[in-house]
Amino acid sequence: QLQLVESGGRLVQAGGSLRLSCTASGRTFGSYHMAWFRQAPGKEREFVAGVGWSGGSTDYADSVKGRFTISRDNAKNTVYLQMNNLKPEDTAVYYCAGKIPQSRNYNYWGQGTQVTVSS
Asked: What contacts 38, CB < 8 A, 6 or more positions away?
């Protein structure tokens, strides 16, 4: 079992930066693949970034490559999303998610944190 709590979302101006955090409960956090997803009003939830269990493998949606960085600290049971050069189209609820490596789908989800980028 993995319980996830996101934090760090707020209102920010376009061009600004923000770092989201997701803290997990459980002793086996380091064995999970973690990711960030987002959902904008009226749109489907979409993948933003993912990181493997060791932090050495990362993946990004094309829309955020070069601007967002995902990382994790297994000693703190935390995964981060550093977001730079934010754009109004980045406005969404951001969700942290986790899965065991063998799983195709992300099974564990946080409650989400709102990021609003003003133009």
From this structure: 45, 46, 48, 90, 92, 93, 94, 95, 115
**Which of helix, strand or coil describes residue 61?**
coil
> Which residue is it, tokens 């933003």?
48
- pLDDT tens-place string over residues 48-104: 999 998 888 999 999 999 999 999 999 999 999 999 999 999 999 999 999 998 899
Distance CA 28, CA 2 (A): 8
Query: Hey, what are 114's tokens?
Result: 């709102």
d(CA 36, CA 40): 13
Here the tokens at position 11 are 């209102």
**What's the rounded Cα separation, in Å, for the pair 11 and 30?**
31
How many Å apart are CA 15 and CA 96, to the nearest integer?
A: 23
